Each structure stands twice: as structure tokens, then as C-alpha cells.
Amino acid sequence: MSEQQATKRGSAPADGEHSRSGKKPRAAQPQTIAPAAVVKQEREEEEGDATQSSSEGEASQSSSEGGVGAVVAAAGLELEAMDEPQINVTIGVSLLHCHACFLPLKPPTFKCEAGHVVCCTCRGKHGEACGRASAYVACSELDAVLLDAKLPCQYQEFGCKSLVAYYQAADHDGACPWAPCSCPAAGCGVLAAPARLVEHFRDDHHWPVTSLRYGATCRLPVPAPAQGCHVLVGEGDRSVFLVSPCALGAATAVSLVRVSAGGDAATAAQFKGALWVELPSSKDKLVLTTPAVRSSDLADGFPAADNNMFLAVPPVLLHDASGEAPELMVCIDDPAGDAAANSTPPARCSGRLQ
């Protein structure tokens, strides 16, 4: 091969010249790095989205599970708040009575070695009668039954809605404000709770009814025996009192009684009162103070004047020459004793009956 041919084959064409083959040289292609980076970034974003979606799914599932748990917990609390179902059963009374005092068992109760169940305070008494009462065990299960064994008040038909534990029934019945009392009017046989007797007194006998504020003076006209009683209803506790007149020769005897079936042994002894009569234009007074207002169920009518403390109003006051009608003042102390000093009338008086 000649040098000229070698030169033609091996030499590169000069600038601006083309090779004899007639083909143009290829332009240098730039490296494609950016597309690869974009793809990688997209993959990372997809993976991030997938991770976020998975996290959101887990969070949603956790929230859903938490919500279900909250609902279940709330339902559980609601079930606990609901009243436990109640049943009515018939049981032998002896199972609920003390083997020593024979009264209803009062918790806490105890059982001796012989199996006798007694009240806590009856253990000493029972030990004298039972030879195996040297040791006792507590009956906590029976105590739970005694505390929950309840029965309606025996005066339910008269308006009492109380459910009373069996061992407390006697105490409740003795002081129940719904225990019935009788109407003292002659020939009237109505029997009702004091609160309902007030309506009967007003509607059927047309006796006046006045609200009474304890410790304050209540002014009334002196009732005539033919007019019947005057009804007083205490504010707050709604206790019912009757101011009753009756003829005492030419005078009028006025007495005060509380309408209650509980008697003086219940709550009547906490009331003190005073009655006095005066003329508006005169300073003279006749006063009766009572250390305790008597209580009665009126089963035998209104207590007779000779069996009850009364204030005798003489004819000279009933028929005063001035023509003025005397006023009857009634003051009953607060049952709590807060107004005990208020029941004492003013000191200026001409006569006092104790």
C-alpha cells in the first residue's frame, strides 16, 4: 500500500471537509442522567405515598378500633348505670327475725355455733339462752339481703310511695306523714292523710285555710263554735293544725291541735305554741302558752276542752261595748327551734292562763 493510500485511509478529514464516503459524522449525544433521576424520584414518591397510605390505613383502623372500644365502654357504663332488675318474692317471716328478740333482724347480724342468727345487740342476751353461743360469725351475705329486702309502706293507698327496708318498716309507719286521720266534724266519716284532709276541710266543710309561717304571729277572727275549725298549714313541712272553738258556758274555749296519726311520741312534741286574744283598741290580752302542741289522729273527734289545754275567751271580750271584734293571735314555733323565742307574745297582758 502506498503512502498516499495510507494517508487517505488513516487521516481524518480536515476541518470543514467531508470524508469521501459522503457521510456526515454523528454529533456527540449528551448523557441522559436527568430522566433516570426523575424516575428514581418518582419511585421514592410512590413508595412514600404507599407508606403514608399504609400509615393512614393503620391509623384509620386504630381509630376505628378505638371508636368501637369507646362505644363498648360507654355501653358498659350505661348498663352499670341501669337499675338492677327487681323481683317480688314470698318468704317466711321467721327467716328475717332475730332468734333472741324475735323482732326483724337489724344488720349487722351474727350466727352462733348452733346456727341461730341474731342482731348485733342481741348477742349477750342470746348467750344466756343458748349453750353454743360462745362464738359468733358475721352473716355478711344475709346483711346484704336485709338491706335490700323492701316492701311498700302500709299507707300506700293514702298516698305514700316509699319502699322501706323490712327491718325499718315499723319505724317508718310510726312516723309516716301519710298515715290517715279522721275528719272531726260530727257525722263525717272521711279518713285520709292530713294533706288531703285539708282539701276536704275546705271544699266539703268550708273551713277557712290559712298558711302559717313558724315563729310569726297569725291573726285570725275568734271562731264561733257553730262555724267549725280554722285550718292552719305550716310553711315548708306542710303540717296541719286545727284551731277549734267550743262553747264553755257563755265563754268560748279555743284550743290548738296538730293533725297527725303519729301522736305525741312522733314529732308533735317539737312544736310549741301560744294563743292570745286582744281587742285592737285595748292593751289587755288573754294568753295561753303551750309547752307542746298536742297531736291527734282525731279518731274520736276533736279533743274535748276539758281534756286539752284551751284559751277561754270571756263574753266581755266577745261582745265588747265598742263593737270591735276581738282578734285571735296564734304563734307556733319553728320545728327546728330557730324561732323558739318568737312564740312568746308581748308582755303587756292583763291575764294569763297556763
From TrEMBL:
This is SIAH-type domain-containing protein. Signal peptide: none annotated. E3 ubiquitin-protein ligase that mediates ubiquitination and subsequent proteasomal degradation of target proteins. E3 ubiquitin ligases accept ubiquitin from an E2 ubiquitin-conjugating enzyme in the form of a thioester and then directly transfers the ubiquitin to targeted substrates. It probably triggers the ubiquitin-mediated degradation of different substrates. The keyword Nucleotide-binding does not apply. GO terms for molecular function: zinc ion binding. Keywords: Metal-binding, Zinc, Zinc-finger. Residues 1-67 are annotated as: Disordered. It comes from Urochloa decumbens. Residues 52-67 have a biased composition (Low complexity). InterPro entries: SINL_plant (IPR044286), Znf_RING/FYVE/PHD (IPR013083), Znf_SIAH (IPR013010). PANTHER family: E3 UBIQUITIN-PROTEIN LIGASE SINA-LIKE 4, RING-TYPE E3 UBIQUITIN TRANSFERASE. Residues 148-206 form the SIAH-type domain.
